[in-house]
Amino acid sequence: MKKLIWSLVAVLIVGLAIFCYFRFYFVFGEGVRSGELNYVVHKGVIWKTYEGKLIQTGIRTQTTGVQSNTFEFSIADKEIAEHLMTESGKVMDLHYKEYFGRLPWRGHTRYIVDDIVSIREKNTSIDDQNTEVLSTIAPGTEGNVIPGMY
């Protein structure tokens, strides 16, 4: 009888260890997201973690309306987080890993940014974009805006 109980306890412990590994440490997916960095903050009550938001181009429709396409993420590496804090408002490509579950000391989200692929300045001027398009259509027309062309 004692052997049966110890066997059941061992099976439960091994099963729990396998569950915890797949839930919190197995990398479910990884990739690169691109967009404008909105913010990176250091927050938390017990475990201070770095959290950020990336605003991606385009829009996402929902049943209740239309909203911007955002990517909320956590950052485990302090050096990456501090570098991103100084680059707010720029367009960047960030490499991330996705987990099934989140751990409080790793961050508030399932997405963990682990590398900065590229950072570039945001092109904010619509007139510059129009001038660029116009100069490729008809050289010498820079600054002349065609009505209805954006």
Walkthrough of the structure:
This protein has a domain at 24-121: OB fold (Dihydrolipoamide Acetyltransferase, E2P) (Beta Barrel). Strands 1-2-3-5-4 form a 5-stranded mixed β-barrel. Helices cover 29% and strands 41% of the residues. The termini are far apart. It is elongated, with a radius of gyration of 23 Å. The protein has helices at residues 2-25, 78-85, 126-137, and strands at residues 27-43, 49-62, 65-75, 91-99, 111-120. By secondary structure, it is α+β, with helices and mostly antiparallel strands. The protein is built from 3 helices and 5 strands. The longest helix has 24 residues, at 2-25. Mean pLDDT is 82; it is low at 129-136.
Percent of residues in helices comes to 25-40%
Strand coverage percent = 35-45%
- Mean pLDDT, rounded to whole units? 82
* CATH fold node name of the domain at 24-121: OB fold (Dihydrolipoamide Acetyltransferase, E2P)
- The shape is elongated
How many individual helices? 3
Largest sheet: 5 strands, mixed, barrel
Low-confidence stretches: 129-136
In terms of structural class, how would the helical and strand content be classed?
alpha+beta
The main sheet orders its strands as: 1-2-3-5-4
Number of strands: 5
Distance between the termini: 79 Å
Query: Measured on Cα atoms, how large is the radius of gyration?
Result: 23 Å
CATH class of the domain at 24-121: Mainly Beta
